[in-house]
Each structure stands twice: as structure tokens, then as C-alpha cells.
Design brief:
455 residues; alpha+beta; Ubiquitin-like (UB roll); 8-stranded antiparallel beta barrel; 5-stranded mixed sheet; globular
Amino acid sequence: MPRTLFEAALLQAVSNDNAEEVSSALKMAEEEDLVAVRELLELRVKPTFNNPNNPKAFFHSVASFGLDFALDESITQLAQRNEKMEAFQVLDALEKRLFGTSSAAVPRDLAGEAQLLTAVSKDDGAAVTKVLEAANGEALLKLTVEKTFKDATGSAFYHSVASYHLAFELGDTIHDLAVRNGKTQAAESLASFGRPADVKVEVLVTNAVNGQELCRVSASSSWTMLQLAHDVASQVPTPGCRIFLLGGAALTSGTTLADVMKEREGDSDILELSSLVRSNVAGVYSATVTREEDELELLGPRLVGGGRRLIGRPRGQVPPQQLQVELKEDGTASFEYSVHPVDRGHCAPPSGGRLIKGTGQWQFEASNLELSITAGDTGHFQRCMPHRDGPLSPFVIILTMVKEDQLDVVDMNPLDSSAAPSPRGRHFHRCCPRGTAFLKRGEGEEVGSLVHFMT
């Protein structure tokens, strides 16, 4: 009897949620010795089936047995997802006996999730803390809003957050929901859960080159490297981007002193960090930012048939955003931004996307680098050809050097906060998120322009 028949018998037994049939199918496989029980339990759902050359994949389509599934799920996980609890208990116990562990997902606390959503909806900070302490708070904090719900096997909210009168966007965590809906008390309780007590820390900053002491800082354990850099700059004003190192490894700007204290060796009362200042930052830096499909209406629709609307679905991948900054030795700078329109499979070449080409100046500001773009143009693609729309709204980008030859975006704002930005300028600020990493191009590497407006 071939393996595929044992597999089919097992899938049918799970579909029937019959513990006796599950046990019988596994026993027959073991007696025939054509396929070990272990191999049946190790089978996974793959994108293709009916493939005899892949012994680790289900040969049959699990959907043909009336089973919902996700890729890479085992027979035990299929039983759990489809709430075939009699079959699940047999398979789960067998996995634990044979492998010492189970592939099943950790049982979800659905009641705790519902209580937490209720507490957030009521903006009851005390109730939020109580739920998190009573339930598996860390797991609840990691849940996100997805396109589907009522699935207890994944990391998405099982309940519909809209039914709790909470506005949302896909990907929101419970803390994001609280902030988005103005539930300030709930947001504070969520943010503070599991947070270590804020303690005073004395930081000794030394020169990474010669080991000499630069300064001592009385700080808080909640301080980030960015905050520490500002304080050090006030004591040791040196033009350039300051990098902190622990054991030779650069610390990112968002790393807190509490994080560093966990990683360091020893338990001294003084936290010692070495530091470098990089002032030679001239060069060309580039960044790539991927986009979600939900951003398409913001970035790419054009006038079609008398109205602004989207036609069709994207064909292929959504084009990423390309950014390029050039910092020159004389303090001048240039900035380019390009995102191609989405190809929706129309006969005509696609239109849309966004283009920005500007110039300005750069300077060191405390421990950061301030890039001000004051002149330039915006545009878009018209049937794949770049067209100029008009002047850009001046803006400023604050960058920090997180390691050699990498500048990360700390913030980005209109240069004149009182001026109303153009629609294209306003959208652009939303599309260059904090944390965007600009990497320096190597010496001798060919660098071209991203934007070529038609004259």
C-alpha cells in the first residue's frame, strides 16, 4: 500500500474528526512499514501538490478534504486550525511522545483578548493592566490587525476590532489601536507593561581610538543613544555624527541604555561606552523603501475616464521607492526621489508614480546631520515618461549615523512649519518613514541620476 494512500486515509480521518480513524490510519502505516509514522507527522502543506519528488510535502490537496490550511502546516496544525479536536488530541499527544514537542500553536487566550479590547475601547488603563497581568500579556501585545479574523492559529486578532468601535489600519497592534483612537490611559498602560523600572545610570564615554575619557553623563536607563549623543555633544562639542560602541559593535540610535546594560559584561555601577565622531560624510547615499499594496491609492492613481479612481489590480510586484542623497564637501546637497507607477496590465504604458528632484544644504546639528532641500521640482510619469508638475515644498530631513557609511532618517518635516505643503509634498513626507537607511555608495561605483525631467 503506497504512502499516498496512508496519507489520504489520515487526512480523511482528520476531516471526519474521528480519533479512532486517526489511530487506525497511523497504526496501518506503522504495520505496513512503508512509511514511518514520523514521516506522516512531518509532512507539510506546500504551494504545489501531486509532486512525488517532494517526500516532505502532502501529495494530496488538503483542501479537497474540506480542510482550511496555511502553507507549511503539519497534519496536527491542520487539525487544530479546523477545530477537529478529537483528531487533534491524538496527533498532538503522538507528536509530543515521538519528538518531545508539538507543532501545534500555543492555545490562544480568546477571552483575554476580548477583555483587553473592551478595556481599550473604554480607555480604562487599570483594566488594561489587570488583563495583561492575568493573561499572557506579551502574546496579546504582539497581536496585529489582519485582513481576516476568527483564526485562532495565527498572530492576528481573533475578534473584529471594529466591533469594539475601534478605528484601525492593517498591521496595528493593540497599542497602535489605543493611540489611533485617542485612548490615552489605555495607551500608557500598554506602553508601560513589562517596562523595566527607570533607574539612574552613570555613563562613562571614552574615545574609541585612544581610550581617553571624554565625559561622564548622569542619564536614565530609558535614554536612547540619540538622547545620549545630544547630552555628550553639549559637553564635548565636536562637529560630526557621533557613534557609540559596545565591545566594538555600533549601537543604533534607538537602542536604550537599559538594553545596553543587559548586553554588557559584568555588573559595574558605571556603564562604559566608547565613541567615535565621523565628520567625513561627503558622498552619495541611496535608499530603497518597499511599499504595501494599501498605499497604491495614495501614490499612483491618475485621472481615468473623468474621475480619480483605480482600475484593475497590480500586475507583478509593487515598485519600491528609490531615494538618493548627495552630500558635497562645500555643504551643498542634492536629493532625488523616484517611484514608478504600478503596472495594472493595461494596453497603454502606466502613468502615475512620483518624482522629486531638489537641491539645498547640509550641516551638522548636535550629533545629527540636518539636510535642508530648498529648491527643486516634483513630477510624475505620464505613460512611463517623466513629466514635471511644479516646484517642491521645501523640507528638512534629520539624519543620524548609526554605523560607518549608513545614515538613518530620524525625522522629516516641512522647512516652514507654517506653510501649507502641496498635496504631493504632503504625501511624500508620509512615504519616507523614520528609520529609512541611506547607504553610502562605494568609491568608484557608478552613480547616476534617478530623475530626468523632460525639457
